[in-house]
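Re: adenosine monophosphate structure - here you go.
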Amino acid sequence: MSLDTADPHPVTLILLGPPGAGKGTQARMLEQKHGLVQLSTGDLLRGAVAARTAAGLAAQEAMDRGELVSDRIVLDILTDRLNQPDTRHGVILDGFPRTEAQAEALDRLLEARGRRIDAAISLKVDDEAMVERVSGRFTCASCGEGYHDSFKQPARFGICDVCEGTAFKRRADDNAETVRTRLSAYHAETAPLIDYYAARGALTEIPAMGEIGEIAAALDALIERLGEAQVSA
Ligand code: AMP
C-alpha cells in the first residue's frame, strides 16, 4: 500500500482483541514494516500517569483496577494525538475504541478529517491462555522489546536481545487478578464492537493463538489486499 505524503487516503486500522491478544506486538511490527503510526491509548494513558497530568491522575485509579477509563478522558487524549502531523500517513489504533460511544466518536473524528476506517481486525484468542500470557510478560525498558517468563526469555539472562539493555519493566496491571477484570471489561464493553464493524463491512477476523510471525504474515496480506482494493477503486 502506498503510504507516501501524496497518498490521498491514509490507511486507518483498528486492532481489536482482549488483553494479551498481541495487539501491541503486531502494531509495533506494522509500524516498522508499513510506516504506519501505532496509536495505543493504553500507552498514551500510561504516559499521562507518569507525567502526572490532570488526565493521568484522573485515569490512574481505573487503570490500576483494570477497569475502563472514562470515554471523555480517552477521547481527549486520542484526539490530541490524532492531531499530530505524523499520523497523516496512516495509523493503527491499538486498544481504541473500547466502547460503542468511542467507536461512534471515532467515526466522527475521522469523518471531520476526510478519513475512514479501512479495517477493524479482531485477533481471536482463548481467554484462559491470556491470563498466563499477560501475567508473565515484561519488556525491555530501553527499546520496548517484549519478553515472557515462560515463553520468551532473553537469550542471555538479563540482557535484551535487541538493544543489550539490562533494565526490564512490568506493567502494574499485568497481574492475574487485574487481567481477569480487564477480560471482563473486554467482553462487556469492547467485544460488541466486533458486530459494530461487521455491520459496516469493515471486520476481518484473524486467528491469533499461533506464532507471532504467522499472525504478522496474515496482517501483511490484509494490508496488501487493502492496497490493491484502493488502487482498483
Ligand atoms: P492497554 O494498554 O490497552 O491494555 O490499556 C491499559 C488500561 O488503560 C486499560 O485497562 C484501561 O484502564 C485503560 N485504557 C486504555 N485504552 C482505553 C480505552 N480506549 N478506553 C478506556 N480505557 C482505556
